[in-house]
């Protein structure tokens, strides 16, 4: 049905916004929602972002989880940094291949406020980022741009200015987009991504096609052997070898 990416600096309120979005979707539409984040995969954020190989592994695990979860029957929300535009493009491609809606909810909070919130969480003993990891992630953050197809439809919310709740404007617009509501002013019509030839799965033959082909070949050989003493010519027998496969004709 849809893939929603949360995006923003570390400690910018993404998880709170994701929880409000899930609650709004479930209350208003009863739509099944699947949340994918680091805790759901038993991953520690500081450990996962400690160096580039571990961060690459983290993105791979999240991408695999998204690939398994996306469908036309549920909404998948990815609550992670999603800070690299190339990675957002990869997830957009998964949505396009599945033929579903796609949008991005950006928690647009400045670095100083995010740092303050992260330090507060450290003091309270809550999950937070080490200072060196926080600095590195802030430095490498690639801000989403609604003009890019992998960043559109883009909804922005600033938790440092407004309190996040189900009635927040960005949450309301996102819910309307995901439900196909066209009555909201200033909101474009919901557009389902269309798979291309490159992203469509190639139809595979039946698992027993080799057996059927061998069986048909034996029938053709047998019909030829039987027809040789009779001295007849032309088509002796046509043998179908399965749906979508050619018909084998034996000649003498």
TrEMBL record:
The keyword Zinc does not apply. InterPro entries: KTI12/PSTK, P-loop_NTPase. Keywords: ATP-binding, Nucleotide-binding. Coiled coil: none annotated. Gene3D superfamilies: P-loop containing nucleotide triphosphate hydrolases. It holds the Pfam family KTI12. Belongs to the KTI12 family. This is Protein KTI12 homolog.
């Amino acid at each position: 049905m849809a893939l929603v990416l949360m995006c923003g600096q570390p400690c910018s309120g993404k998880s709170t916004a994701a929880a409000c979005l899930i609650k709004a979707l479930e209350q208003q539409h009863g739509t099944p929602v699947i949340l994918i984040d680091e805790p759901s995969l038993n991953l520690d954020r500081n450990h996962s972002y400690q160096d580039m190989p571990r961060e690459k592994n983290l993105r791979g695990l999240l991408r695999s989880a998204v690939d398994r979860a996306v469908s036309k029957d549920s909404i998948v929300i990815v609550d992670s940094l999603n800070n690299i535009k190339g990675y957002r493009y990869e997830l957009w491609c998964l949505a396009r291949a599945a033929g579903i809606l796609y949008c991005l909810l950006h928690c647009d909070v400045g670095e100083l406020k995010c740092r303050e919130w992260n330090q507060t969480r450290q003091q309270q003993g809550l999950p937070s980022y080490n200072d060196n990891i926080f600095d590195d992630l802030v430095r490498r953050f690639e801000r989403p741009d609604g003009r890019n197809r992998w960043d559109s439809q883009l909804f922005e919310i600033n938790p440092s200015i407004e309190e996040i709740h189900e009635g927040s404007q960005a949450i309301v617009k996102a819910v309307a987009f995901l439900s196909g509501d066209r009555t909201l002013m200033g909101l474009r019509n919901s557009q389902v991504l269309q798979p291309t030839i490159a992203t469509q799965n190639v139809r595979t033959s039946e698992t027993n096609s080799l057996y059927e082909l061998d069986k048909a070949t034996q029938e053709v050989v047998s019909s030829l052997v039987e027809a040789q003493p009779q001295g007849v010519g032309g088509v002796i027998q046509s043998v179908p070898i399965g749906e979508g496969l050619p018909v084998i004709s034996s000649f003498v």
